[in-house]
Amino acid sequence: MNRRLLWMPLVAFVVVAALFAWMLPREPDRQVRSRLVGKPLPDFTLAPIATGKPGLSTAAFRTGTPRLLNVFGSWCVPCAAEAPQLAKLAAAGAPIDAIAIRDTKADVAQFLTRNGDPFAAVGDDRNSSVQLSLGSSGVPETFVIDGQGKIAHQHIGAIRDEDVPMLLAKLDAAK
Amino acid sequence: MIAEVGLAALWLAAAMALLQLAMAAIALSSRAPEPPQIVRDLLSAVRPVAVAQAVLAAGSFAALIALFARTDLSVLLVAENSHSAKPMLYKVAATWGNHEGSMLLWVTVLALAGGGIALFERMLAVRTHAATLAAQGAIAAGFYAFLLFASNPFARLSPSPSEGLGLNPLLQDPGLAFHPPTLYLGYVGLSVAFSFAVGALVTRDVGRDFARAMRPWVLGAWVFLTIGITAGSYWAYYELGWGGWWFWDPVENASLMPWLAATALLHSVTVLATRDGLRAWTVMLSVVAFSMSMVGTFLVRSGILTSVHAFAVDPTRGGFILALLILYIGGALALFAFRVGTVRQGALFEPVSREGGLVLNNLLLSVILGIVLIGTLYPLLAEAFGVQLSVGPPFFNRAAGPIALVLVGAMAVGPLLRWRRDDGVAVLRRVAVPGGVALAVLVAARLGTDGGWLPVLGLAFAAGLAIASVLPLVGRKPWRTPLAIYGMVVAHLGIAVSLAGMASESAFTAERLVAAAPGESHTVGPFAVRFDGIKPVVGDNWSAVQGKLTVTRGTGRPFVLRPEQRFFANPPTETSEAALATFWDGQLYAVLGRDDVGGRRQLRLWWKPFVSLIWAGGGLIAIGGLLALVGRVRRRRRQVAA
After folding, report:
1. Radius of gyration of chain B (CA)
2. Fewest Cβ atoms nearer than 10 Å: which of A5, B352, B530, B587?
3. What is the average pLDDT value for chain B, to the nearest integer?
């Protein structure tokens, strides 16, 4: 057997350990900013995917009232974990729309019945194209959009309980 | 007082671990062909020191249990994690329901494993045995240091509070009492394989004896790991109220990866013990299996990955465990690279042979392990490059599912192959019946369901494997067949049973979510469920809203299900207690949801045909492992006696 090959497991482990060491001191940074923060939403029109709810287009965010835009997938566990917090935001009067990523009607219906449905409209982003144009690469993410269609804030990752007041404040500040 | 005794025992255990390492190292550094008396004395003294270490660690853990049992609130850990109003079972279980306590359990299992080798292992050469115990002592020393310097479970709290903060209610379940200890016995029990491998590399003693000595220990750890994972999956299924049994969450993956490696190891060690092949590979797997346990511990304890399992996390502690990982895994892999070249090549074999089947099993298990590892770490890698994402079940199911099915196919054929060399045509004849049945089930299932291919293929492979797995018994005299063969048959049958459950759950589950008014009836699967209303109930440290559901199946007698929504006061939390009715052909799963408008209540109802087979199969796998273990140990006794 080639002697060098025997070192491969160690090399692979060193790479993984270096990754751990590099990532460990980082505070989990949920406040990463998209370059689009402060810029207008890209133009999009998405077909409906949730039964009985309209689809979503950029025009919906230019009505003068700030709204939340949640990017989720029925297949994503953190999205289910943040559902109670979205419900709290909705209960506090925050209007929330959503974009479902790489999803199907049946899966979305099941997800919404299982985890609660705080959304006014849900758009079908089958190939992630709108998600990517928003400067979002993962799920879940939540954007605060001011009444003129401009992105005021981007929240990356699941909304935790302590993020709820912060998001409400951002929504208020976007007026 | 108890806390101080426990802490003292922990320090002493750490000293014993270092002593164990130092004594063995000094003795082994002497290369004289006729070692002087002092060296022989040192070598023989390593055993009692390892036993003493185990006794001290167990004593320390017992002290912590005593503190929790009497709710000694002057101990910080007790005050933070327990409450005087809790039932006794949960007071005791709270000992390992927190970071410090569970790490103490971890290192106690490590010490007990070392003590076990010292007391019961008689097959290894003296020097290899000492080197094995030295490795076990070295690992233990690092984790003792972690406890003593970064996670002291016995720290006092002054002034002591009048009441404790309580335990996370999700953890207040009989599942917690048993799931972590069994999982740890498996997880940490694999340290034995690691230490055997390191010991054998140090003394250049890799061969059949090494494999035969290691096999029962690996089997034992594997049985516990299987039970721990199966129990954990069932616990998540009924306690979380989500109706799912596996979520591909990083913490679940952390327990699955060592299991995959240990399963591969069990099979490669058989090749080494029986045919003296796969030497370097078996050593590699022994190192990898426990390395996966340590990586898992790191992932869980450092909080480096986002998980639905919210453990208390702390980057400093993460740094400490990472340093230990680098020391032990890096050290073992470096030793492997230096030394394994000096291991003589083992026996060779033909591709179509029992060995060939086992090699295929190992390759496929390794690929699945790689997929799970990459899927688990990928979000972290992406984050290092500034991208945040999560890898979901679709990735794991699509990537690992098909390979797992190929593995099941190999599992059906492998045990029917002869050692060394077999004839391809004869093999095909042997698998004709299970293959035909699998094909028939495939056609029937495809016509009978609408959905993905994966569940349908799962049902077909399960049927084929179920038949193939018992074929090794055909033509054997039942009373003369070794227990190890029965063990293999039962374990493989368990895989078939479990797979059938998974495929059936995924293909046939019926789900209903309704907002039900009192008196209303709804149907799910073959059941009519009538919502009779709610009433308040009170428990030891919780109150609840309990729903009453009257269920009838066809013309059968009606029965009552009572799902609850519980409210815990300390700490304030709300949980769903699902109500389950188990039948021979599946489970009805009911969850009581929130209030809805007009006095209605949300109800989630699932009918999951044959879902229980998932865990029944897990149980069979563990029983199979146990049978093989008993068989091996009995045979070894006879050999030692002879």
Report:
1. 26
2. A5
3. 87
Q: What is the DSSP letter of A39?
A: S
Please write the tens of the pLDDT for every residue from A155-173.
877 888 888 888 998 888 8
Both structure tokens of B410: 């190999």
pLDDT at B579 over 80: yes
Tokens 């016509």 -> residue: B447
Amino acid present at B78: V
Reported pTM: 0.81
The closest of B105, B104, B131 to B118, measured between CA atoms, is B131
pLDDT of residue A30: 43
pLDDT of residue B308: 53
Q: Is B333's CB within 8 Å of A113's CB?
A: no
Tokens standing for residue B330: 């890096």
pLDDT of residue A116: 86
Q: Does residue B371 contact residue B399 with C-beta atoms inside 8 Å? A: yes
The owner of tokens 């799963």 is: B589
Residue ranges of E strands in B471-624: 510-516, 521-524, 527-538, 542-553, 559-561, 564-568, 573-577, 579-583, 586-595, 601-609
**What is the C-alpha separation between A115 and A96, in angstroms, rounded?**
15
Cα torsion angle, B239, B529, B556, B614, sign:
negative
Q: What pLDDT band is residue B127 in, cutting at 50, 70 and 90?
A: confident
Which of these, B41, B58, B49, lies nearest to B20 by C-alpha position?
B49
Instruction: List the domain boundaries for chain B.
Output: 1-172, 510-610
Q: Which two three-digit tokens encode residue B310?
A: 């919210």
The single residue listed with the structure tokens 């797992």 is B404
Q: Which amino acid is at B530?
A: R
pLDDT, residue B207, reads 83
Q: Are B456 and B446 in contact (CB under 8 A)?
A: yes
The distance from CA B506 to its chain's CA centroid, rounded to whole angstroms, is: 23
Angle at A116 between CA A114 and CA A118, to 5 degrees: 150
Q: Which amino acid is at B455?
A: P
Backbone phi and psi for residue B277, each to the nearest 5 degrees, phi listed first: -110, 175
Phi and psi of B608, rounded to 5°?
A: -115, 95
Please give the DSSP secondary-structure letter assigned to residue A40. Answer: B
Domain ranges of chain A: 30-173
Pick the residue from chain A with its C-alpha nearest to B592: A114
The pLDDT tens digits of the residues spanning B13-52 come to 999 999 999 999 988 887 777 778 888 888 889 999 999 9
Q: Which of A13, A22, A114 sits opposite B333 (nearest CB)?
A: A13
Q: Tell me, which fold does domain A30-173 have in CATH?
A: Glutaredoxin (3.40.30)
Amino acid identity of residue B114, one-letter, is: G
Report which DSSP code applies to B305.
S
DSSP assignment string, B153-219:
TT-B-SSPPSS-----GGG-SHHHHHHHHHHHHHHHHTHHHHHHHHHHHHTT--SHHHHHHHHHHHH
Contact assessment for residue B137 and residue B541, using Cβ atoms and an 8 Å cutoff: no
Helix then strand count (H, E) for chain B reads 20, 10
Enumerate residues 117 to 146 of chain A having a beta carbon within 8 A of any beta carbon in chain B: 137-139
| Pick from B455, B459, B375, B358: nearest CA to B411 | B358
Chain B residue numbers with beta carbons less than 8 Å from the beta carbon of A86 are: none
**B378-398 core/surface letters (b: 16 or more CB in 10 A; e: else):** ebbebbeeeebbbbbbebbbe
Which residue has 């935001």 as its token pair? A89
**Closest by Cα among B191, B156, B177 to B231:** B177
Q: Which of B335, B390, B514, B603 to mutate to test the interface with A (most CBs of A within 10 A)?
A: B390
Q: State the best of B290, B311, B383 to mutate against chain A, taking most chain A CBs within 10 Å.
A: B383
Q: How far is CA A174 from the centre of its chain?
A: 19
**Mutual angle of helices B99-120 and B37-69, in 10-degree steps:** 140
Q: Which two tokens stand for residue B625?
A: 């492992």
B396 token code pair: 């794991």
Q: What is the pLDDT of residue A31?
A: 45
Q: Where does residue A175 rank: exposed (0-12), middle (13-18), buried (19+ CB within 10 A)?
A: exposed
